[in-house]
Amino acid sequence: xxxxYLRQQRLYCDWFKSFTxxxxxxxVQMTTSLTAVKTYERLPKNVIPQLxxxxxxxxxxxxxxxxxxxxxxxxxxxxxxxILNASQLEIQEALFKDPSGSTxxxxxxxxxxxxxxxxxxxxxxxxxxxxxxxxxxxxxxxQMKGFYRSKYTTPSGEERYAxxxxxxxxxxxxxxxxxxEPAFKAQFEVTLIAPKDRTVLSNTEPVQHVQHPDKAxxxxxxxxxxxxxxxxxxxxxVGEYDFLETITKNKTRVRIYTPVxxxxxxxxxxxxxxKSLTFFEDYFNIxxxxxxxxxxxxxxxxxxxMENWGLVTYRxxxxxxxxxxxxxxxxxxxxxxxxxxxxxxxxxxLVTMDWWTDLWLNEGFASxxxxxxxxxxxxxxxxxxxxxxYAALPALKLDSLRDSHPIEVPVAHPDDIDSxxxxxxxxxxxxxxxxxxxxxxxxxFRKGLHNYLTKHAYKNAVTQDLWDALExxxxxxxxxxxxxxxxxKGYPVIxxxxxxxxxxxxxxxxxxKFTVDGTLNDEESKVQWMVPITIITSQDLNKVALSALxxxxxxxxxxxNVTSDTWVKLNLRLNGFYRVQYSAEMLKALAPAISTKQxxxxxxxxxxxxxxxxxxxxxxxxxxxxxxxSSYANEDNYVTWVAIDNCISKLDLxxxxxxxxxxxxxxxxxxxxxxxNELGFDIKDxxxxxxxxxxxxxxxxxxxxxxxxxxxxxxxxxxxxxxxxPIHPDIRSAVYRxxxxxxxxxxxxxxxxxxxxxDLQEEKVRLIQSTGSTGDLARILQLLNFTFSPEVxxxxxxxxxxxxxxTKLGREEAWKFFKDNADEFKRRYGSHMANASLIExxxxxxxSEEKYKEVESFFTxxxxxxxxxxxxxxxEMIKTQDDWLKRETDSVRNFLESI
Length: 899
Description:
By secondary structure, this protein is of the alpha+beta class. It has 28 helices and 29 strands.
């Protein structure tokens, strides 16, 4: 699953993205719902499903469905009770038939709290086989999970509804009674009864398609049995769609299903989908096991996409691309998302984690493999550099918290499953896989993956199974080394000291756990890692001077034939998941290599980000950091600018609570104006992907700083856009935000008119998110109230609300709105990551003891189950920012007054 609240930070959070960068851990002592221990008992394994024969009849007028299933089961232990999962279902009848034909009627009890159904029989079921038959009914809900309804508009303007599914995690139980845990793999034979003028899809090809014998307007579509798979990978859809298709070299049919009339917007996705499938077949040396792989755009979709085997579902903006209106960043995100879901067809679908503790085996690997595929398809994207910016750095930031969690995290209760679909499972998981890949080499990595996938095909696996496969091929102690990175949270910072010994350089390395407050308790001071170390020097930038495995807390390394004027840098291209703290002399020696861009962009990015982390940890003063930032005055690379922008944005947030905000804006304008003068507004080369991304970043920041030339040019271009001369999509978001931040009521309302006039979801999101940059109270309230109107899809409302928090006023009003409508947010999003993102962004921009108490009190009294850790992290952030202001304001003041 591709979770856009993680990956779309860069798409809709550029205005306020720094809010999630750094926090200082705080030992919060609370005996409230935020820290309460939940208990849950997993399903017994005395009855195992083998084959579901499932029939569903959705009613798209009253939003209900009826269903029946015959489940062929294996009885492992004699029992008079079958326990499985069900939620929001009514069960009319449950029968068990043994091989002799004898039938038992079951007494059904539903446990709504734990979402279980208990079927008891008067006689014990004997060891062997049998068929469990259940008749049931349910609702096509509007919560984007389970079997749900999705509203769309036909080309003629008529509103209609489709029925679609989202079963991860774990919501198959909302569509039919099942063993809704990943270890209970089975086959599924799906039959759908639906209007005959609708497209009907499932994981496999239809094998029978007939008219309903009693109802002329209905069709009955029966699908081929699926492979053996987990329940969360099942999917079925009834709606109206166009499609494009192609056949891969291995004869797999690939289709892109689009809303009717938008077939041409699926062309780019079809190219990526086909090439991704071929790439992974070659890389894993394992053919895709199904005859077809469909990708379909769903109007209402909570996450970014879902890897259902053979039928991948997406929100529209992640699969539709309009040549005239889709930006470069959205095309890139489409490629990343499709590659991610295609990788899941092997990692997650063919081989599945045994329980949610090993979710990262799905998500971490898909997040790493997506970059391999996109780099092969679009080398001009420079996607591995962006991996550093958008995967490694955010994971390092989150994992510095004491309220982080290990990659292999125990999951005791279903409510907590959604909470681990986070930067640790995805981005840290991907980062340590990248580190392992770099350490053992691509050849061993590929062969190890092939062996792992082949051995565990159609089965479940745990993390150690993967390490065993990689270790057997590479001959390196993969399990021992990588266990440090998956079983314990956090990561090290490596302190580097250097001394010259004749023609040799002696490097002393000392590791300690990195925490953003710079302190360690007794337990943390004992933690260590086995760290793959790489070192480069200025004598040969393209060659690793030394590779080593650091196995102790402290070690010395000798670099032979290194002159005294040679600089030394650790962690080439940020391949290792750790930070580096150089001595003052070593850092000074690196400064010229930064300013002349002798160092590669990722290495420049890494040095800056590590220094900023040390600043937030109290190891470097703000004035020292800002002085060091001058080494980046001539920077022109996009990924390095992402790191610069993260730092500037964070400082801008903090200083908004002081009287230094205007002075810092002047500093920022001066820093950004040089690159702005080089780039301007106009796209010089459509193929210069990263340059076009950089232009948008610079314009967004200068608009935030109210830089007059950017505001004035944006207003001019916006007026022309409304009159019929479109703004280039790559700068459209920046222009919209600049205009919305400084417009009158008439112009502000124009954004809503444009929203209503477009049918491109990407453009709708871009327009309304941009209005959140206004600093006017009435307009903020207008936007917040609009998010709950029928014109806004539930999947988008939370993002529009987040768009308001770029100013102090917007942050405060959005927080009030969230509190006033807490029950509605619970109903809409429950434990989904939408609420996690809302809570995070609406609260962690505060910076006072008063706000700390207010947030703590609210969530103590209003439980958002599954998001307790998010609240604790926000509390840490609030305390951090309050402390930072007390510690650093004078230092920043002195620096700003001296320039």
